[in-house]
Write a structure and sequence with these properties.
Length: 387
């Protein structure tokens, strides 16, 4: 019997160079794996069965590379991608590692730093477009503070808006066709990051000059760090037409950014997320922004990559089983089976009068059990493979 959980290109599974190339360094210990050259990372991802590879500019091209070195590196990388049938669906820019960004990038107090950050992003957009990317992610890891005495936060928002507006115009001018996906995080590396949640960015986007070009890139770990429900952030972005990209990993709430293998910490929330993405027909990249354990060599990194994709496909199959389960679907249907409720989906004089004239059995409605305990238990049994 064929394995039903083997990734295929139509699944659109992607990884960043920084994910499989993560060397296991942490604040208390140095790297445990040798550097993984980008072309070897592409080969590893092809062996794992991935569809795409994403990159920050400096994951591929060193920040001080000459123009000739830059072109040579890009040629070699593009050749590796073609050789292994790996695409580059998304690119991004590193505005957090170099010491010049210690006070932020787009929101830094020094206008020269802000200008350099925009210039660096434009060149990263050039690189992404050259490699075929059509999504450009912006993560403001340094756009925050340790002390709010350093600047007014409303001024930081204005600076961020100015930068994003400029980058949208650059994409239009160059005819790159980029869709920008803004990625939120509550803290780390800064004490507090300005756009802490996906909802904050969804409120910010309508204030831009080209809101149609800009959406969000929610990440599991970043919402879970703040103790939030990631599914709800994704659903809000989807309903707003702004789910341009999604970062899949896992995280225990209330801890530092752990970037665990997808589904390895909170399997029920991962199941609900997969079910939602499949139910609504999300057709964008399913990007795994995660890292292998520090205990692993590169064979372990290969297993990590395979595990992310395999877990997603297993949960997708479990979602199909959930939808096909007669008892589960009967419970779901029974929750909203009252057909005599007045219509208030659209305001009109007729609907207004009908609603005002309606009577409700408030006590009876309050006593009605909804069978969510049974529904949740059946969901767990589907997940545990006993139904």
């Amino acid at each position: 019997m064929a394995d039903a959980f083997v990734p295929r290109p139509e699944h659109k599974f992607s990884f960043g160079l920084w994910t499989v190339g993560n060397r296991g360094r942490d604040p208390f210990g140095d790297a445990v794996r040798d550097p993984l050259p980008p072309e070897e990372a592409v080969a590893l991802l092809a062996e794992a069965g991935a569809w795409g590879v994403n990159l920050h500019d400096n994951d591929l091209v060193p920040i001080d590379a000459s123009a000739s070195d830059r072109d040579r590196i890009v040629r070699g990388f593009r050749s590796a991608c073609e050789r292994h049938a790996i695409v580059v669906p998304m690119a991004t820019v590193n505005l957090f590692y170099d010491p010049v960004f210690r006070d932020g990038a787009f929101t830094a107090n020094d206008p020269r730093v802000r200008a350099y950050a925009v210039q660096k992003t434009m060149r990263a957009m050039d690189l992404g477009a050259e490699l075929g990317a059509r999504i450009f992610v912006l993560w403001g890891g340094r756009e925050g503070t340790e002390t709010d005495a350093c600047r007014r936060p409303d001024e930081a928002i204005k600076r961020l808006r100015e930068a994003v507006n400029y980058l949208c115009e650059y994409s239009i001018d160059r005819e790159y066709g980029f869709k920008f996906a803004l990625e939120a995080k509550p803290n780390e590396p800064r004490g507090d990051i300005y756009m802490a949640t996906t909802g904050a960015y969804l409120g910010f986007i309508p204030t831009l000059d080209h809101p149609e070009m800009v959406g969000v890139n929610p990440e599991v770990a970043h919402e879970h760090m703040a103790g939030l429900n990631f599914l709800h952030a994704v659903a809000q972005a989807w309903e707003a037409g702004k789910l341009f990209h999604v970062d899949l990993n896992d995280q225990f709430p209330g801890r530092y950014d752990q970037d665990f293998r997808f589904g390895s910490a909170n399997v029920k929330s991962a199941f609900c997320l997969v079910k939602f993405l499949e139910d609504v027909g999300y057709d964008g990249p399913r990007h795994f922004d995660a890292h292998a354990y520090r205990t692993e060599d590169y064979r372990g990194v290969l297993e990590f990559a395979r595990g992310c994709m395999r877990t997603y496909l297993i949960l997708r199959e479990r979602a199909k089983q959930w939808h096909a389960d007669a008892e589960i679907q009967a419970l779901v249907a029974s929750v909203g089976d009252a057909h005599d409720a007045p219509n208030f989906s659209r305001y009109s004089q007729r609907n207004r009068d009908a609603l005002l004239a309606s009577t409700f059995d408030r006590a009876g409605l309050a006593k009605r059990g909804l069978a969510y305990e049974r529904l949740d238990q059946l969901t767990m049994e589907v997940l545990l493979g006993v139904r």
